[in-house]
Amino acid sequence: MVLTLAFRNLFHDRTRLAVTLIGILFSIVLVAVQLGLYLGARKMIVGMIENANGDLWVTSYGAKSFEESGNLTGRERHLSLSVPGVTTVIPIVVSFAEWRKPAGGTALSVVVGTDPADGGLLPWDIVEGNVGLIAAPEAVAVDRTYLEDLGISKIGDTAQIETSRIKVVAITKGIRSFTTAPYVFTTLNRARQILGLQSDQATFLLVQLHPGSNVEAVRTELISRLPGTEVLTKAEFMDRSLDHWLFSTGAGVALIGGAVLGLLVGTVIVAQTLYSSTKDHLNEFATLRALGSSAGYIYRVILFQAALSGAIGYVLGLALSLVIVHFSENTALPIVMTPGLIIGLLVLTIFMCAISAMGAIMKVTKIDPAMVFSR
């Protein structure tokens, strides 16, 4: 009977129900989009670091992120190789550079120089060509999301980076940059040539250790032998990059703030609707009290109303959110929807509707059963 009464109360006024569902729906969509953008931004920021095959990163002192770091002097690699527990030290060159389009005009790009044979940081999700082709003269790999921005359309197209001629030999899918400057993969020596670096210079050293080695012990020894540098674990470097791009720039605060605003708006709309519905049915609730219904019974009716509203609104909101996620897949800033986010949205919806029901319950607690006899 509780569920039946809640259902009839909820569907008695279809217009009010529609307003409630629209409020919940758009609240869920706003939270999903904002948090999905946050997750998408996070994925782009840490993507290079996550996909690198190494235990430790050696960077210049004060490096802010993967894209923003100074260059090492060149002697650090040999000193790192002499540390017990270190098996391989892979140099990587990373820097912003000017891409010159074939038809005229320029675009900012991020050159990533590393040799495929080293296995340190390779382009992944290649949909055209293969990683081995990058070793060919003038060869580079780019992501298909940025082809139009770079003034190219297919494998075999040529352009210039700074003053060096390059040729596209591989195209990836989904390697996006938070800075919107496309990553351009090439070999280590070609990157040095494009950027005017010395033959032994690098931006990062990716350190691989013997299996079973004590990471902290090796790290301490590297720090002692490499003054003027920082030695970071993968997790530390990801955290630093996230802090720089999301919180130092304010982008992350804006995304999370939008999600909180969506939650508040949805809660207020649902609370107002439930309160109004309860107020309109005070006489009916008073009749139930006069007939001997307990306060707990009436509270359950209101909570079921909130739960039904939340369930319907959640399903509709999630469906619309997934449609938006689908259409964002090929954009420069895709929205990411994870199972954890889907569960989190359900918990948020339940919480939102439970809080909204409190106002209606407080109104019902003040009902005097005798009011039914004054009608």
Structure, described:
- By secondary structure, this protein is of the alpha+beta class.
- It has two domains: 2-44 and 250-374, no CATH class; 62-227, no CATH class.
- It has ten helices and ten strands.
- Strands 1, 2, 3, 4, 5, 6, 7, 8, 9 and 10 form a ten-stranded mixed sheet that branches.
- A hairpin with a 5-residue loop joins strand 2 (86-100) and strand 3.
- Helix 1 (2-12) packs across helix 9 and helix 9 (295-327) runs antiparallel to helix 10 (339-365).
- The model has no long low-confidence stretch (mean pLDDT 83).
What is the β-strand count?
Answer: 10
Portion of residues in beta strands equals: 15-25%
- Approximate helicity band: 40-55%
Q: What Rg do the Cα atoms give?
A: 29 Å
Helix and strand run: HHEHEEEEEEEHEHEHHHHH
Largest sheet, strands/sense/barrel: 10 strands, mixed
By DSSP (H or I, 4+ residues per run), the number of helices equals 10
Identify the overall geometry: elongated
Unreliable runs, pLDDT <50, ≥5 residues? none
Instruction: Compute the average pLDDT.
Output: 83
The domain count comes to: 2
How far is the N terminus from the C terminus?
25 Å
What structural category arises from helix and sheet content? alpha+beta
